[in-house]
Amino acid sequence: MEINEIKEYLPHRYPFLLIDRVIDIKPGESIVAIKNITINEPFFTGHFPDLPIFPGVLIIEAMAQAAGVLGFVTTGKKPSDGYNYLLAGTDKVRFKRPVIPGDQIHLEANFVADKRGIWKFSCKATVDDKLVCSAEILTAERKV
After folding, report:
1. Hey, which residues does 10 pair with through a beta bridge?
2. Positive or negative, the Cα torsion across 84, 90, 91, 95?
3. Are 119 and 77 in contact (CB under 8 A)?
4. Is 14 exposed, middle or buried (CB count within 10 Å of its CB: 0-12, 13-18, 19+)?
5. Full strand arrangement of the beta sheet holding 118-127
6. 12 catalytic, yes or no?
7. Which of 131, 135, 113 is nearest to 62 (CA)?
8. What is the pLDDT of residue 79?
């Protein structure tokens, strides 16, 4: 899935669209997406000027966006149909190493459960096959 198709499944836009490509998706099961990290991104001017590190909260957001795409594809719904997936919670978040400009993050989300419209995903982010972050992410499907 390239960027124009991703934009059909996510309402986010620059500078907050954090998925560059989906490289594998199995509806109802899993997704693998990528985020390319470049020095041109606006937050690097302040995080940190002499040591640019991709913010951890944005790694979590990128994993949540990947989970959102998986949710939309699984249900056959899109934001244009009046639906959205909202971040509802995170559990067991762990950061293992920093992400810097030039890295490519592989974002993986695996469907775990759906209870009353709250979806649970097991997620991880890796760079060069090394774990940078893991988390359980909850999203809530909402009609907007």
Report:
1. none
2. positive
3. no
4. exposed
5. 21-26, 30-36, 104-115, 118-127, 130-143, 83-95
6. no
7. 135
8. 96
Structure tokens given for 114:
């759906």
DSSP code for 80: G
> Residue 29 — very low, low, confident or very high, per pLDDT cuts 50/70/90?
very high
Q: Output the average pLDDT for the chain.
A: 97
Q: Quick: pLDDT tens for 41-96.
A: 999 999 999 999 999 999 999 999 999 999 999 999 999 999 999 999 999 999 99
Instruction: Walk me through the domains of the chain, giving residue ranges and CATH numbers.
Output: 3-143 (3.10.129.10)
| Six-digit token string for 46 | 């302040």
Residue 6: its H or E element:
helix 3-9
Question: What is the total residue count of the chain?
Answer: 144
Q: Work out the number of other CB atoms within 10 angstroms of the CB of residue 94.
A: 10
Active-site entry in 7, 21, 47, 124: 47
pLDDT at 120: 98
- Residue 105's closest CA among 19, 39, 42, 43? 19
> What are the start-end ranges of the H helices in 25-125?
56-75
